[in-house]
Specification:
Elements: H1 5-8, H2 40-61, H3 72-75, H4 85-92, H5 96-108, E1 112-117, E2 120-128, H6 130-154, H7 156-172
Antiparallel strand pairs: 1-2
Helix pairs in contact: 2-6, 4-5, 6-7
Length: 185
């Protein structure tokens, strides 16, 4: 079992208690304790990092001990029919050169392979191997268990509300992802 709801929160403040920054961009201190209430950006970043760490640790615990955090740049952006390096790099917001290195490492460890693009013989597409598909299934299992754990920690209605609010925020800024994460398929 994972951390309790109080352990997930960095302080006793609730989202409703956070008045946000003042007119000078300062975040007020929590109830006179002298501990600043973390900014929304810090909370989002820390939650994302915790999520990533738990996914990677979970995948490793299922027998994929050579899995690295950087491997997620490829796995979470790969189309079922394979993807070009340029597409993967764009989705991951990294350079084409960096993505090529990530893919090369995964090829070396047997998770992906490059094949000719059926629409353009000059281009190559990155595809999962059998080992890569096995890892992807393990990642789906870990993801599902982590989401269930977090929903239990917050309560299913609150967790659903959190997801909906994040979706609304991204949609309001035209940033809602159009690509479906392989873990959500």
């Amino acid at each position: 079992m994972g951390p309790s709801r109080s352990e997930l929160r960095p302080s006793s403040a609730t989202l409703e208690d956070d008045p946000g920054p003042d007119s000078h961009g300062r975040v007020p201190e929590e109830g006179g304790s002298g501990v600043p209430v973390p900014s929304v950006g810090r909370l989002l970043l820390t939650a994302f990092q915790l999520f990533e760490d738990r996914i990677v640790d979970g995948i490793r615990s299922l027998g994929f001990s050579d899995f690295r955090l950087s491997d997620t740049y490829v796995f979470r952006n790969l189309d079922p029919e394979g993807s070009r390096i340029t597409t993967l790099a764009s989705r991951a917001r990294v350079t084409k050169q960096s993505m090529s290195e990530f893919v090369r490492g995964l090829e070396h460890r047997g998770y992906v392979e490059r094949r000719p693009d059926p629409r353009d013989g000059r281009a190559k597409r990155v595809h999962l191997t059998d080992r890569g598909r096995s890892l992807n299934e393990a990642a789906r299992r870990v993801h599902r268990e982590l989401v269930e754990e977090w929903a239990e920690a917050l309560g299913a209605p609150q967790f659903g509300r959190l997801r909906a609010l994040l979706g609304e925020l991204l949609a309001a800024h035209g940033a809602l992802p159009s690509f479906v994460d392989p873990l959500d398929r």
